Amino acid sequence: MPEVQVLVFVVGTRAQLIKVAPVILECESRACEVKLLMTGQHKETMDDLVAEFGIRASPDFAMSSTERDSIWGLMAWLPGAFLGVRKFLRRWNKRGSNVFVLVHGDTLSTLVGAAAARSVGARVVHLESGLTSGKVLDPFPEEICRRLVFRMTDMAMCPSDSAMQHMARYRNVECIDTQGNTILDAVRCALKALPIPAKASYAVVSLHRFQNLYDVDRLTALVETVVSVAEVMEVHFVLHPATRKRLSQLSLMQCLDQAPNVILHPRMGYVAFLSLAAASDCMLTDGGSNQEELAALGVPTIIMRPRTERADGLGANAIMEADVHEGVVAFVRDGKHRALRRNRMPLHADGPSRRIVDSVLAHAP
């Protein structure tokens, strides 16, 4: 029986790093052998996030980090990332270690990490497991990634009852109810450094989904919506690198630059972003992590996508774009979003991250 238990966190994107950070911190508080392996899918602000959360583990890299901000860039990155992750994991397996590979969510890095782990005989722990839209191509490619990773998972860390029920369909998968998503722990960590902000009359926008960026008509309509909302209140648009590049390619950045009430921001640190979001009047976002964060903060949220696999905030602080029948601009102009405001959620130290680590360590030799 191997004597050393090694927990390898395979992380590619900023959102993944935010969500696994509290799990890593919990492992480090228990003196576990932790390895943080970056796939190189994202580069911008990744080092800052490691420092911001106070992660002690020095990141290793499966390949050189750069910002994969196009489809072709991601396709070129994919095989090298898989080989780099597999090479790293092989080294630890050869040392006679009891290796658990923790992957998160539904990105290409999740798929790379799970596939590499299976190829070397390591156990796959899937965080935020069991979420599904029920539509194989929506969102694309996230739903496909999820379904493939589900089939490679040994331990499924499920944030909800519905996720537990979904993963029960898969044979030989141990399902653990984490009673929430690790983003709750990430928000709790960030709030320690975040003063309670005074509410202000501005909106925050964050858009990065493939289906929004690569449908020209859809992206053009979204920019028009942002510019129109800016006629009602100030808009702070936080630009993901892929969003910034796509807007520039389609000459839509000029529309935003020329809008008098639109303020463009580069992707920012986690505490800075939460501070901006928490003080806002409302947020327009297509991000699943944003949906969860804003549910915890109680910020009025309009989800700018056809459907979501998450229940967080729905029927409370969040509403789907399709359910805003009068249109987003009229909804904001008439102040109807303010009825979505909720109190902040109570966040406790005994959260999902602790339950995840308890479950993994229960398999220690």
Q: What's the topology here?
A:
Layout lengths: L3 E8 L2 H16 L3 E6 L7 H8 L6 E2 L9 H24 L2 E8 L3 H13 L2 E5 L14 H11 L2 E4 L2 H7 L6 E4 L5 H9 L10 E5 L3 H4 L2 H14 L4 E6 L1 H9 L3 H6 L3 E5 L3 H9 L3 E4 L2 H10 L3 E3 L14 E3 L7 H6 L18 H10 L4
Overall geometry comes to: globular
Helicity level: 40-55%
Rg on CA atoms, Å? 20 Å
Write the element-wise H/E pattern from the N-terminal end onward: EHEHEHEHEHEHEHEHHEHHEHEHEEHH
Summed up, the helix count is: 15
Query: Mean pLDDT, nearest integer?
Result: 91
The neighbouring-strand order within the major sheet is 3-2-1-4-5-6-7
Cα separation of the termini: 7 Å
Largest sheet: 7 strands, parallel
What does this structure look like?
By secondary structure, the chain is an alpha/beta fold. The chain is built from 15 helices and 13 strands. Helix 2 links the parallel strand 2 and strand 3. It is globular. It starts with a strand and ends with a helix. The mean pLDDT is 91.
Short description:
The protein is an alpha/beta fold and 365 residues long. It contains 15 helices and 13 strands. α6 links the parallel β6 (155-158) and β7 (174-177).
Notable characteristics:
365 residues; single chain; 13 strands; globular
